[in-house]
Write a structure and sequence with these properties.
The complex is a heterodimer. Chain A is mainly α. Chain A has two domains: 186 residues, MetI-like fold, CATH 1.10.3720; 282 residues, MetI-like fold, CATH 1.10.3720.10. Helix content of chain A is 75%, strand content 1%. Chain A has a two-stranded antiparallel ribbon. In chain A, helix 16 runs antiparallel to helix 22. By secondary structure, chain B is an alpha+beta fold. Chain B folds into two domains: 246 residues, P-loop containing nucleotide triphosphate hydrolases (Rossmann fold, 3-Layer(aba) Sandwich); 116 residues, OB fold (Dihydrolipoamide Acetyltransferase, E2P), CATH 2.40.50. Helices cover 25% and strands 35% of the residues of chain B. Chain B has a six-stranded mixed beta sheet, sandwiched between helices. In chain B, strands 13-12-11-14-20 form a five-stranded antiparallel beta sheet. Chain B has a five-stranded antiparallel beta sheet with strand order 15-19-16-17-18, with no helix packed on it. In chain B, helix 3 crosses helix 4 and helix 3 runs parallel beside helix 5. Chain B is elongated and about 80 Å long. The two termini of chain B are 31 Å apart. The chains are: A mainly alpha, B alpha+beta. The interface between A and B is medium-sized, with 28 and 31 residues.
């Protein structure tokens, strides 16, 4: 018998064995069913609703009215600008933080984490306080009557909010480059600049593309900043919201959010099927033992200047918001007050509790579901596995605004009547964080040898028992990272939730947006301060307890 | 014939006596800790020299100082009579093959090998000729347009070597280049490596922690421990005449037995092992000879006999044995300790058990201070 035939026979035997295995393991069958139903019901079905719901007349209107075309152009323009600036600054951060000999790394790392754990609109809020009509700099110091509302303010706000996203992606890629390559190139006579040009840059190009795509996705789907600081500059995300709340035109909102989805989905697919294939694996057995070569001083000091400016800006954003929280009436009466906080505690406490409560439930739900799904989809062989894998990471490409609108459309009728409930808010939080938890689970599973599970199964454990007794303990770190990450993200989320909250289920972020919309800057700042306080505390707590090996944001 | 002249014959031939690389009082300090301490070595032109030692012994640091990646704290490196102080890595006539190969993953095999020559701004035609020759020489022509990740471990290793050799270095430096290969391939590649080195007559300095590899491949071996040179000799001498207990212990398998020196003559000494006295050649200076010394003897230098044939031999009792095919290895309890004995003729007599007698062959005996 030829080798190939032997192989064939072997695989046939295994596939027969697999089918038999599934039928004999009702726990597995049940698990696959639960995961499939959840993913289809809460991801695929609402997305389909968006496409089906609007009439052809609505679609036609979107294309023919210049107003919508203008908004579409605005969104794209903003995304291009933000992507460029964020990726550039993010690259500087990533490069500096992955060099061995760069000073103040802890400080720079800490400041670049700040935007990642805050509501995205904090920058917008700070800009208003500094450069708005009542702004500290424009109004109080310079006596100008200008405003930061519009494209430039929005561009700045998004850049400050999303450069850490690029930095995070790029530092992962930079770290995977073996420093020995640099030594080898130098040994062969290459200069510092030559090494960067011929070795580093080609190796990280896929990473840069990846980071840029990610940032553009964030920028497109950003809702909070355009809401706070966009002013007359309308983008798709805010337009969809206006259609729902201002004009009660749900079909048009669906169409607008669909066009929010198209670029995001495109970027997601490019990322998944093209960029990831371009990634180079470094050919090496053992890790390098050479310490990384020193950074050329001119590069080091230029980076130090860039990072310092970005970090100082970030810090000042947060300082301004905190100051705003303690100021009586920003722009008019600069005296110190605690009134903003007492207002928050008196009338907005329920929203903060909701935020905490929903986020906690969402983080538990996400961690359980995503981890379990990663285990089933990665380890078990069954029909439709690849489709489930795609669906599990798909929400990463869904703009929050779209998710919000899709959920209103999908769950407003019996038997799936969820609008107005806390459940729909929590579900939206879960769905949006599943990709993170799922990938996290995969990364750990990748390192667990299959034979461990096989031996447990050999001793008589079924799928659920293997998961509970073997996988879950081994996935503990992935599990806890997912919990904390989802908690922070849910505490700071706004774009989907704003469509789904009702008077009883308001959360802190939507409350802050409401306050700032009505010009209650002080109260908005006070609530934002409390919110950021909670997320910073959570991060610190986790990093202290978790120790070195558990990092939320791995720079 | 004395042991000395026998050794001379087994020593390295065909090596120029000209010193090519010289390390003079070389030290590297990290904080208060010496990675390498006062290292003096003269490496001959065309020789294959191994730096051997346990991890953390300073062998890799030494190699990196020679390559120029690490600056020495004290001392100097002379290559072809020229001090290398202040000369950057690529201006030295050395080329390094890294443990992890450091192949550029985004370049084909050909581009990897051409990389250094391109930087030298070699004319296109000459560059192509050299690279083609090197591809041919290293048997890589068929994979010239592949990317490194599609090559086997052995091929990757050859690309790394080719990339260094094409630069026509005076001195080739290799940092554990075989440690990423599996055991079988390692043996094959190392003989290939040696063959290439001999063909080119290239002075090669090679770092390894694998003593078998070092013994099989080198003309000379420098054994380092905790940054200090222990012995610099041919493999033969290291194995049979270790200068100290560390070398005796590190290279091959050895038994160490405390002995009492009873008599010292010009040519020989009488030492007492357990309750028997044996004669040992006196190859030691008077100052090295103490009353209590350590005797080292390798398992293959001990003959083992059934107890009835062993009147005046050291008596012992077999605890266990391992049948290893060409060898039967015994663990023999001689009262004060266990001794490992290898019997190389297992087919000539049955596997022994119980009481036995041991004879120590005098050529295999070395004495050290305690």
């Amino acid at each position: 018998m030829s080798v190939e035939l032997q192989y064939e026979e072997k695989t046939q035997r295994t596939s027969r064995f697999i089918l038999k295995g599934i039928l004999q393991d009702p726990a597995l069958l049940f698990a696959i069913a639960v995961i499939s139903v959840f993913l289809f019901l809460f991801i695929i079905y609402p997305m389909l609703k968006i496409v089906i719901y609007p009439s052809s007349e609505t679609w036609r209107r979107f294309f023919t009215e210049t107003r919508y075309m203008k908004i579409l152009k605005n969104s794209v323009l903003l995304a291009i600008l933000t992507t460029f600036s964020s990726t550039l600054i993010g690259f500087c951060f990533a490069y500096a933080l992955t060099r061995e000999d760069f000073p103040f790394k802890r400080f720079f790392r800490a400041t670049s984490i700040l935007p990642l754990i805050s509501p995205p609109f904090v920058t917008g809020l700070a800009l208003i306080l500094l450069f708005g009509r009542q702004g500290l700099i424009t109004h109080a110091l310079l006596g100008l009557d200008v405003s930061a509302y519009g494209l430039s303010g929005l561009w700045f706000a998004q850049t400050m909010a999303y450069y850490p996203v690029a930095a995070l992606t790029l530092s992962g890629v930079l770290k995977s480059i073996n420093p020995t390559l640099e030594y080898a190139a130098r040994d062969l006579g290459q200069s510092e600049w030559g090494i960067f040009k011929t070795i580093t840059l080609p190796l990280i190009t896929p990473g840069i593309a990846s980071a840029a795509l990610l940032v553009s996705m964030y920028s497109l789907s950003d809702f909070g900043n355009p809401m706070v600081i966009g002013g007359p500059f309308r983008v798709l995300a805010t337009e969809a919201y206006m259609q729902v709340t201002g004009m009660y035109n749900l079909p048009m909102a669906a169409v607008v959010s669909f066009f929010l989805l198209i670029p995001s989905l495109g970027i997601f697919l490019i990322q998944r099927y093209w960029v990831s294939r371009k990634q180079y694996e470094t050919v090496t057995g053992k890790g390098g033992t050479l310490e990384a070569p020193p950074t050329p001083p001119i590069v080091k000091y230029s980076l130090l200047v860039i990072l310092s400016i970005a970090s100082l800006l970030t810090i000042s954003i947060f300082v301004v918001v905190i100051c705003g929280a303690f100021t009586k009436t920003w722009g008019v009466d600069w005296s110190f007050t605690l009134a903003n906080f007492s207002y928050t505690f008196l009338s907005k406490m329920k929203d903060i509790w909701n935020s905490l409560y929903f986020s906690l439930l969402a983080s538990l739900g996400t961690a359980l579901l995503a981890t379990f799904a990663s285990y089933i989809i990665y380890r078990k062989k069954f029909w439709g596995r690849n489709a489930l894998d795609l669906i599990a990471v798909l929400p990463g490409a869904l703009p929050g605004t779209m998710v919000g609108i899709a959920y209103i459309l999908a769950f407003n009728r019996k038997p799936l009547l969820l609008t107005g409930t806390a459940a729909i808010v929590i579900l939206s939080m879960i769905v949006r964080n599943i990709p993170f938890g799922y990938r996290n689970g995969l990364a750990v599973l990748h390192q667990i040898d299959e034979s461990i599970e096989e031996s447990a199964a050999n001793l008589g454990a079924n799928t659920l028992q293997v998961f509970k007794d073997i996988i879950l303990p081994l996935l503990k770190s992935a599990f806890s990272v997912t919990i904390v990450y989802t908690f922070i993200k849910s505490m700071t989320t706004v774009s989907a939730a704003i469509f789904l909250v009702s008077p009883g289920t308001n959360i802190a972020t939507t409350s802050i947006l409401g306050l700032s919309e009505h010009g209650y800057w002080g109260q908005a700042a006070a609530m934002a301060t409390i919110l950021i306080g909670i997320t910073i505390l959570t991060t610190l707590l986790f990093e202290t307890i978790g120790g070195k090996e558990k990092k939320l944001f791995d720079f | 014939m004395s042991i000395g002249t026998e050794l001379e014959e087994k020593k390295v031939k065909n090596i120029n006596d000209e010193v090519h690389v010289e390390l003079i009082g070389l030290s590297k300090k990290y904080g208060e800790y010496y990675a390498v301490k006062n290292l003096n070595l003269k490496i001959k032109k065309g020789s294959f020299t191994c730096l051997l030692g346990p991890s953390g012994c300073g062998k890799t640091t030494t190699l990196r100082m020679i390559s120029g990646f690490v600056n020495p704290t004290e001392g100097d490196i002379i290559i072809s009579g020229i001090s290398q102080r202040g000369i950057p890595p690529h201006k030295r006539n050395t080329s390094m093959v890294f443990q992890e190969y450091a192949l550029f993953p985004h370049m084909t095999v050909r581009d990897n090998i051409s990389y250094g020559l391109k930087l030298k701004k070699l004319p296109e035609a000459e560059l192509k000729k050299k690279v083609d020759y090197m591809l041919e020489f290293m048997d890589l022509t068929s994979v010239a347009d592949r990317f490194p990740k599609f090559l086997s471990g052995g091929q990757q290793q050859r690309v790394a070597l080719a990339r260094s050799l094409v630069m026509e270095p005076e001195v080739l430096l290799m940092d554990e280049p075989l440690s990423n290969l599996d055991a079988k391939l390692r043996v094959k590649v190392r003989s290939e490596l040696r063959e290439i080195q001999k063909k080119l007559g290239l002075t090669t300095i090679y770092v390894t922690h694998d003593q078998e590899e070092a013994l099989s491949i080198s003309d000379y071996i420098a054994i380092l421990d905790e940054g200090v040179l222990q012995q610099f000799d041919s493999p033969w001498e290291l194995y049979f005449s270790p200068k100290n207990k560390f070398v005796a212990d590190f290279v091959g398998l050895n038994n160490f037995i405390p002995v009492k020196v009873e008599k010292v003559e010009k040519d020989y000494m009488i030492v007492k092992v357990v309750d028997k006295t044996i004669e040992v050649k006196n190859r030691y200076s008077a100052s090295d000879i103490k009353e209590n010394m350590i005797l080292s003897i390798r398992p293959e230098s001990i003959r083992i006999y059934p107890v009835e044939e062993a009147n005046d031999l050291i008596k012992g009792k077999i605890k266990i044995h391992n049948f290893l095919g060409s060898v039967v290895r015994y663990w023999v309890d001689i009262g004060s300790q266990d001794i490992i004995v290898d019997d190389h003729d297992p087919y000539q007599k049955p596997i022994l058990s119980g009481e036995v007698g041991l004879r120590f062959e005098s050529f295999g005996i070395n004495l050290f201070g305690q």
